[in-house]
Amino acid sequence: MPPTSPAPAWRRFAAIVYDALAVVAIVMVVGLLAQMVTGGKLFDEHGRMLTWWYQPLQGLVVGAYFLLSWVSGGQTLGMRPWRIRVTDASGEPASWKRGSVRLVIAALPLALVLIFPLTSLKAALWAPVIGWAILLSPAWFDQRRRAIHDMVAGTEIRRLPT
After folding, report:
1. How many Cα neighbours within 13 Å face the side chain of 45?
2. Alpha carbon 128 to chain centroid distance?
3. pTM of the predicted structure, to 2 decimals
């Protein structure tokens, strides 16, 4: 595939909005399946989780969605309508290694939710959003429109030819 130009940052952000909808759908389906497996006993009457495996399962399934999308076709569902894809610097599809590094770095802001015991729920929920804003901010200024996780993984978001 011939090299294409870096995608404008606004296309990346538009794709993120679409992908957020896909992630909500994935989380809902995994939640439904988990409720079915536990006979509706995933949470107690106070809303506390009764299973240790539910949140890791959600993370694995959502992570697999992104990793498989980037490695197998270079595009998530959100990237398709905006005609962008993840590649390496030469325009080739991202490898499993690059995709995995990209996923781990991009997911790091989720760990900021762990500040909840030290602060309010509102602050704990805003912390990952601020973390992602920091990770994505270089895409507005970098000549190749890379975010921090792209710089670390050696990936780029490219426009597809029309």
Report:
1. 0
2. 12
3. 0.90
**Nearest Cα to Cα of residue 56 among 67, 64, 47:** 64
Cα(first)–Cα(last) distance of the chain, in Å? 13
Only one residue has tokens 């399962």, namely: 57
CA of 44: how far to CAs of 41, 74, 81, in Å?
Answer: 7, 40, 41
| Distance between CA atoms of residues 90 and 48, nearest Å | 48
Residue whose token pair is 């992570």: 63
Tens digit of each residue's pLDDT (9 = 90 or more) over 94-129: 999 999 999 999 999 988 887 878 888 898 889 999
Residue 131 φ then ψ, to 5°: -60, -45
**Rounded Cα distance, 26 and 65, in Å:** 9
Measured CA to CA, the distance from residue 64 to residue 77 in angstroms comes to 13
User: Dihedral angle at the C-alpha atoms of 84, 89, 94, 98, nearest 10 degrees?
Assistant: -130
Q: Return the axis-axis angle of helices 96-107 and 54-72, rounded to nearest 10°.
A: 140
pLDDT at 11 over 80: yes
How many Å apart are CA 92 and CA 158, to the nearest integer?
A: 10
Rounded Cα–Cα distance for residues 151 and 85 (Å): 15
Token pair recorded at residue 89: 């610097």
